[in-house]
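Researcher: We're teaching a course module on how sequence relates to structure. For the next exercise, students receive a sequence and then see the predicted structure as tokens, so they can try to spot secondary structure elements on their own. Here is the exercise chain.
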Amino acid sequence: MVGLLWANKIDRAAVSAEERLDGKYLIRTSDDTLSIEDIVLGYKQIMAIDRGFRTLKTDLELHPVYHRKSERIRAHVLLCFFALLLIRVAENEAGGTWFHIERELRKLSLVTMNTPESVTRMTAGN
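Model: And here is the predicted structure for the students to work with:
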């Protein structure tokens, strides 16, 4: 019973000490030739790459594809990169997330009107 009561007690000093570290990173490297700015920039780039892979796997619904030929592997990686780049450009231009952009795009339909003189294509909202 004593252990249970101890487990439910909040250590206010520990909470206060942890709050001082909120929003701060502890980064460790074995390369002492790098500047602090380079280390932090490298870490942020790794986080951006991880975020990109999550986008590839979730938003684009890409799954492992197994190629044997090196030119197909390069083409696959390049297509994935362009798809991710397109998402990021769309997010930056629209000022929103891909989730919201995609939801709005799904409301659009392409309408084709054929006349004897021409073919006209336009988008129409649902």
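Model: If you want an answer key for the exercise: The chain has five helices and two strands. Residues 32-125 form one domain.
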